[in-house]
Amino acid sequence: MMLRVFMILGLIFVLAACGTEEANKKPEAEPTNGQANEQPKKPSEGNGIVAGQMELNVLSFEEDKTVIELKNQTERPQVMEFTSGQQYDMWIRDENGKEVFHWGEGKMFTQAIKTETIEPGGSKAFTVALPQLDPGTYTIRFKVTSKPPFETTFKQTIE
């Protein structure tokens, strides 16, 4: 009977410890693994702050990648909390509404809480590797998976 109690307590301790080592590790930043390709920009005079908005902008859309920027257009630092190693997701639909690409599908992410702060006028850029797309017009939905989340949808024509 006493052996069972110790076995159950041991199992509880092992399960409670799962994942705590990963939470203390800093993830490597690579542009195509769900981590942001951070390109911090320092606030400066005349940075065009529009009070009260966080803004997602498409900086570039190329054959093999897109760069999307989250800019703090508020007058206060904005704190984002990520509950996993995934910092963004992207979905691409063709002209018929069929999903042709979902970036996060089939990927696994660490379960670690991470917070990041974007200062007023500052930004964070996300570089996403793209699949080969046939010519046509696509609807792209991009979401920063933080709390609070930020999302944008835009159309892109491939010739």
Automatic annotation (TrEMBL):
Residues 67-146 form the Intracellular proteinase inhibitor BsuPI domain. It comes from the Bacteria. InterPro entries: Intracell_prot_inh_BsuPI, IPI. Residues 1-16 form the signal peptide. Residues 24-48 are annotated as: Disordered. Keywords: Signal. The keyword Lyase does not apply. This is Intracellular proteinase inhibitor BsuPI domain-containing protein. It comes from Pseudalkalibacillus berkeleyi.
